[in-house]
Write a sequence for this structure.
């Protein structure tokens, strides 16, 4: 196992910059997720680490060694592909043994290590099957075993769960995370699924248009997003544009005053961001922020309340009130009072697009 | 009602198409057992005499052996060459790829007699330079037949390569395989159905070729189709139908055997 360091990594295709100056340090045994919408450059970044795409600029260091110009076979990474990429003409054991064979490991040790790897992914006894005789989930585990068995310095996962059905995905997620932690694998994981990234990764890298927007733990990204893109991408957010009017007071265009953090500098133009679960409301009372209920979405244990606040849509998420609660009587079109703690709101610079 | 009518019409068209394709083949097989020498309907009786006659005429047996040899050698040379060409055309960054592709598929488009004549003239010239026989030799014939096998191989292997999942090759490289090892251990085995089909069609193309071969065979080294044409110059009797039937059975058997190893319907 080793560390992974990316410094100023870029890839251009003609005038099109797909990855733009990505720098990242992955510590030994850490799982870092590259997260972003499709086309954000996360897969290209991973492929540059594996050596399938040559960087236009920047360096890749694996376990301290500069491998920027090394071919894929000289990098000591173990990659799990989105399509699994199993060798269809080899048995499961043959697939898993391939990397060991390439490393010149003798037959006896090879066989022992293949058996152990298959046991690790709970595929004991299926070694003689062909990949096409296995289910999707089993094929995925063969791909895991094949990458793990060679003890790569860095473990690379390219959307490994996207071809599994929802139930299996949740299971395999836990399984991969357990394996990764147990074996202390330095891992770079590409996904477009924020839930996957939040539940599995030690740290997340949010990417957009080839650039890193923010790097941090799930908690940091959710509670202290650096910009509106990150706030929108990790979880859901209410965003209201306006200006800081005074200590703890934020004004939107029509003059409505909203609570905001007290330390914000007056006069600053910003976007006020508020997570839906921080937004409180009650039937109309004289004090507070006035709004109109647009609709409710019942989700069982939780209910979404959509309001119109100074012409902008905002949403509150809270536990479904018990039967008979006065909130249950609210109808679309009713006036309500909104409220939140100024410190729960976050002021973000407006993103220049 | 309309649906049923349409379905019947469709069924009839399919049956018609099959009949059109298979009728000549069946006719040849049936005629080969007619007892009269001049083919006419209705048959006067049935006999296996023509098969015996074909066996007695040694030029057919010799032609068969020559055809087999030429087809096997031409396939053994053409398929590796065509596979390499297909790989380069699909994968490598080459200038003039389209032109190269057209050139390699060319022998399919040029009429056999034209190609045969051109090769004959070329061989005559080349004989001056190398100061040795080329036309009429097995070498010259095999070289010509390699031309027949290349387009089929390029076609079929290119199609197989286009449908190949590149990530399996990347996985092999990721696991430490060098490019040549990737090709040998992963790419080639995954291309096997395409390559086997290419071998089969190359063999058949060479084995049954008449037009291109006609001008290039030498005395005592004639192929089966040419032997059949020669026979036709002097006699018209069901012996040829008997020989053709043997050929049909052979090619059919070859296809069935190949199909057991790779599903031909999937690659062609």
């Amino acid at each position: 196992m080793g560390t992974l360091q990316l410094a100023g990594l870029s890839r251009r295709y003609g005038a099109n910059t797909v990855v733009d100056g990505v720098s990242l340090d992955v510590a030994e045994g850490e799982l870092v997720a590259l997260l972003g919408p499709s086309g954000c450059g996360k897969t290209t970044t991973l492929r540059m680490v594996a050596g399938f795409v040559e960087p236009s600029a920047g360096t890749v260091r694996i376990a301290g060694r500069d491998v920027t110009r090394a071919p894929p076979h000289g990098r000591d990474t173990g990659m799990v592909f989105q399509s699994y990429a199993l060798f269809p003409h080899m048995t499961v054991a043959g697939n898993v043994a391939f990397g060991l064979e390439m490393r010149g490991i003798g037959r006896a040790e090879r066989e022992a290590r293949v058996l152990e790897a298959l046991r690790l992914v709970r595929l004991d006894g299926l070694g003689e099957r062909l990949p096409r005789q296995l289910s999707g989930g089993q094929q995925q585990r063969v791909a895991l075993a094949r990458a793990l068995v060679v003890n790569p310095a860095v473990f690379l996962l390219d959307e490994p769960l996207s071809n599994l059905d929802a139930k299996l995905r949740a299971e395999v997620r836990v399984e991969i995370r357990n394996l990764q932690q147990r074996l202390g694998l330095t891992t770079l994981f590409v996904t477009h699924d924020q839930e996957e990234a939040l539940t599995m990764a030690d740290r997340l890298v949010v990417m957009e248009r080839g650039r890193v927007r923010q790097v941090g733990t799930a908690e940091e990204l959710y509670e202290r997003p650096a910009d509106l893109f990150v706030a929108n991408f990790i979880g859901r957010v209410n965003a209201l544009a306006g200006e800081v009017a005074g200590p703890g007071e934020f004004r939107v265009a029509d003059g409505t005053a909203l609570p905001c953090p007290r330390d914000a500098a007056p006069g600053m133009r910003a976007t006020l961001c508020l997570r839906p679960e921080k937004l409180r409301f009650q039937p109309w009372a004289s004090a507070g922020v006035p709004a109109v209920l647009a609709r409710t979405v019942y989700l069982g244990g939780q209910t979404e309340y959509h309001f119109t606040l100074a012409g902008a849509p905002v949403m509150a998420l809270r536990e479904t009130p018990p039967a008979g609660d006065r909130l249950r009587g609210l109808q679309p079109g009713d006036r309500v009072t909104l409220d939140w703690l100024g410190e729960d709101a976050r002021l973000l610079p407006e993103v220049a697009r | 009602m309309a649906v049923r009518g349409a379905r019947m019409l469709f069924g009839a068209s399919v049956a018609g198409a099959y009949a059109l394709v298979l009728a000549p083949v069946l006719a040849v097989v049936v005629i080969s057992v007619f007892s009269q020498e001049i083919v006419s309907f209705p048959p006067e009786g049935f006999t296996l005499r023509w098969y015996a006659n074909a066996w007695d005429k040694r030029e057919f047996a010799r032609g068969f052996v020559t055809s087999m040899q030429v087809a096997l050698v031409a396939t053994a040379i053409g398929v590796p060459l065509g596979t390499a060409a297909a790989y380069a055309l699909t994968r490598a960054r080459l200038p003039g790829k389209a032109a190269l592709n057209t050139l390699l598929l060319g022998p399919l488009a040029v009429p056999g007699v034209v190609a045969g004549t051109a090769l004959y003239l070329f061989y005559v010239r080349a004989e001056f330079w190398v100061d040795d026989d080329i036309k009429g030799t097995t070498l010259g014939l095999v070289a010509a037949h390699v031309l027949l096998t290349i387009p089929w191989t390029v076609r079929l292997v290119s199609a197989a390569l286009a449908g190949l999942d590149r990530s399996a090759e990347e996985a092999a490289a990721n696991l430490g395989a060098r490019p040549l090892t990737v090709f040998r251990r992963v790419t080639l085995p995954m291309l096997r159905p395409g390559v086997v089909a290419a071998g089969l069609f190359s063999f058949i193309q060479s084995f049954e070729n008449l037009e291109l071969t006609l001008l290039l065979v030498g005395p005592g080294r004639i192929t089966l189709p040419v032997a059949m044409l020669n026979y036709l110059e002097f006699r018209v009797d069901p012996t040829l139908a008997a020989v053709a039937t043997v050929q049909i059975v052979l090619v059919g058997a070859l296809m069935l055997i190949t199909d057991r190893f790779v599903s031909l319907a999937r690659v062609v």
